[in-house]
Structure formats: structure tokens, C-alpha cells
Amino acid sequence: MTVNINALTITTPVPASPTNPIALELNGAAAIAQYPSFVSVLSDGSVKLSAPTLGASSKSTHRTRCEWSESTNWTLASAANHWNRQQMTLTQVNSAQKVVIAQVHVRGDDSPPVKVFWNKGNITMGFRTTYNQTTPVNTTVLKGVPLGAKFTVSIHVTAKGLVTVAAVCNGASGSSGALLLDDTWDSRLFEFHGGVYNQIDYTDSTPAEDGSVCIISNLSLTHS
């Protein structure tokens, strides 16, 4: 299936300008056209995202990403069901063996309610029940997801704040079960993210070849 990221926002490992080292954000169509070494459409219609560990990052971290995000925010109550369904393959992972592959992000804050990781061959997640909760609660969703294997990961959020993260790989499936966001999230603005976000800080000695690469073969974002 052809994956269309043209209208999504892509955060790249490229600096915004020669004088601004912060990671460049641009829409998917422009990213494909201007930075094919990091964002490209393959012959089968899938999308390849590459994030070297050594590159441009956000103001608050020394961690690079090549990550899509929704261009329009939503609230819990704006739809009965919010879905992020992503089928992907990790073809390379950074030397820490940990990368964020999907998120429910919240506008204006660095503590998202949901982060989903590929972590040393397992799919894990961090969940914050309360807005601005200091430490997320970590859960293993699915064990045994090897590098190079195609897998699906989905995040389902309801208007009532019920969150379920599920994953399937090689016929095995796992789920977080239903987790509940409390009412401190009710007025917040969210967007889904996905791709590769390295969970390792870069330094001056980081090898150029270190990084993470994924191929997204299906992507569905719905609010209904």
C-alpha cells in the first residue's frame, strides 16, 4: 500500500539553517523532494525514514529523529475514537538499541501521555495518567520483535481517555490493555507521531554510521 506523508509534518535530523542548529520541520512532500537521504518513497510505495544519531535535534534534547507528526491537533472529545495504525520494519537501530516509534504527543509540553519504543527487540511503552506527570509508567507490549521483521503497532484513544497500545509481529500479538488518562488531559491538544526518534544522546565522538532507519509500509490516522 502506498503511504502518503505529503500533508504530515516531518521533523528531520537536518539543521533549520546554517545559523540555526535546531532540527528542521517541514511538510512531507517538501521533505521527500529536498532531503531524499533521510525521507524517501520506495518503489513499492512505502516510506523510508533515516535518523543518524549525530545530527540536528530539538532545543530540549541531544537526540535526533526522523519522525512524522499530524499537522492538525485534536482533543480527546473531538472524536469518539482516535487511531494511529502503523506497519513498519526497523532495518537499523542506534547503538543504545532503543528508539521511539510512535507517540501521542501533547502541544506545549515535553511529557507526552504515550510513547511507544522498540527497545532491544521488544515493543514497550511509557504512559502518563496525569498531565505533566514526572515519570511515566513503563510496560512491555510485545516481546520478540527482531530487527528486520515487519510488525504493526497501533494506538487507540477514546473520547473518554481510554488508551490501548497493541503490536503484532510474526503471528504473535500483545496489548497494553486499557489505560485511563485522567481529566487533567481533557483540555489538552494532541497529535500522533511515528517513525524513528533515537533514545541516545549524540556527542562529538558519535560515529557517523550510528543511527536508526525504518520503512513504513502502511499508515492510517483516523479520528471518527
UniProtKB/TrEMBL annotation:
GO terms for molecular function: lyase activity. Pfam families: Alginate_lyase2. It comes from Pseudomonas mosselii. It comes from the Bacteria. Keywords: Lyase. InterPro entries: Alginate_lyase_2, ConA-like_dom_sf. This is Polysaccharide lyase family 7 protein. Gene3D superfamilies: 2.60.120.200.
